[in-house]
Amino acid sequence: MDLMTAAILGIVEGISEFLPISSTGHLILTSHLLSLKHTDFLKSFEIAIQVGAITSVVVLYWRYLLVDSRTIRTVIVAFLPTGIMGLTLYKLIKQFLLGSAHVVLWSLLIGGVLLIVFELWHREREDAIGTVENISLRQALIIGCFQSLAMIPGVSRSAATIVGGLLMGLKRKVIVEFSFLLAVPTMLAATAYDLLKSGAGFSPDQFQFLAVGFVTSFVVALLSIKFLLRYIQTHTFIVFGVYRIVLVLFWILFL
Question: What's the pTM?
């Protein structure tokens, strides 16, 4: 890896973290395109630079995360399923799933089809929940269970969370914003745990790569969040489902 590669991966992370297209899947596929050997450091890098992206959420939504005690409690409850399953399945995921292009492609394809079918079927209820503060703890827990599916590379944390929230009767903008907030403890916990396990072996150069990936993902994620909030005002997520399917077909046919 070099600094340019770290920046490219940071840009990919910043664009894809909050869109329903799987940032982890895109990082893995990009690594394959760049002919990067999927070492333990690269796997840790792909996890750690997500902190750059979620830092943009802290900047934009710090009042929810630091002041609103009800929202903080709701986010913590929603995080629990992923936290528990992540601790239980960490070794399995890192050794056998992260780095697998086959797992990513299948997840992207199946997820794309399901996302399109769901959007064609789903109709927002008139009494849909209109604010993050009104999400109940029960709804938060169920949304968290949906998020835990994203431990499979390519599933997309944001897509799973958003679909779960829409099924729970939340307005589209509300679940998108809640998905942003839920990314904070989820990504911080994943990164902290991984660095605790692997960080001691990193060289100074590798920490430099992490810093570049962090900064680029942070800046690009700010723009990505603002784009998504504007986009959902007049559009569904069908285009992202189509994109996932086209990406898989392109990869199979030409790469």
Answer: 0.87
